[in-house]
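Re: [help] complex structure
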Amino acid sequence: MRLARPLENLIDHLAKLPSIGPKTAQRLALYILRLPAEEARQLARAIVEVQQKIKPCSQCGFLTEFDPCVICQDHDRDNQILCIVEESSNVIAIEKSGFRGRYFVLNKPSSLLEGSGLEELDGQALETYLSGGEFKEVIMALNPDIDGEIMARYLAAIIQAKGIKITRLAHGLPVGGDIEFTDEITLRRAIEGRREL
Amino acid sequence: MRLARPLENLIDHLAKLPSIGPKTAQRLALYILRLPAEEARQLARAIVEVQQKIKPCSQCGFLTEFDPCVICQDHDRDNQILCIVEESSNVIAIEKSGFRGRYFVLNKPSSLLEGSGLEELDGQALETYLSGGEFKEVIMALNPDIDGEIMARYLAAIIQAKGIKITRLAHGLPVGGDIEFTDEITLRRAIEGRREL
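Output below.
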């Protein structure tokens, strides 16, 4: 005895998505089955459309409907400072902080920890982008994890060869954070990077 | 600054699904964006197909491609005992335990705790199903939670009116479970339902 084939089929597809286990996949499939028909069609269409319409910007890698993207078309930015990020969503977060330089989005390969994956990182695209610009500084705004470390080292070689200064985001206590609940590595970095009051 | 519209659109749709928060929705959307085109199309198609092809069995409510379902068409079952369950997936679980009676699937309304929702429970369908059968006993195999309690009381009235015996699944320690980690209500039920060795 099994569930009906189209239901099993949807469960199988959902279970392949990251962080969706078999139980969640089953719950989602039953939920989708009961959605109003129009809502289910919209979800299906959104999946197909995201693939058809969204591409990385040919210059900076930001995911965009229009190439070049809105950021590359914005002439009101500091062209001497470049911020390298892993994902387009990080651009949104950094824009909110007030930064108005240029970006380069790596669209991080998901395979980085599974295999080597570094060959998927497009070093050539970064080199081309740097050559076409007038950058004085590159901020590495990569996540503070192993993947981020690996990518940062790989990219640093490319940037240094151009004689451009490299910086990275400061480590330390998150604003509003609690010392008691901060891990020891972060605390050590916060002490190393202490500032005079 | 926002992400590209088709990407935001997919994130919005995914975030409406149960147990998918905005962060997970974003991660899923980026993952879907990078799927091979054929896999993304298959996922979209599976969503549309599950709605077009799957319906509750007109007799017992089991989700099925063909009406009546395989269980209703199976003549090699005990027709005197009926098991009422909330979801079709519960039928699969109970079949594995070796039970070979009939089933009635409620396809539990998701709204039960939010509003009243009981009017969505098809009492009339159960009554029709009971009238067409020769049942001597109905096992309430509903989940041991508030929803299950509410539904059980509502349905019990319908079944009792037909003079059919009602039973429910036993409560107690799960096989392989540990007394130390069993909650007090389950333990109390296990003591109440103790059996002679």
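The helical segments of chain B are 5-15, 22-34, 37-53, 88-96, 123-131, 146-160, 184-192.
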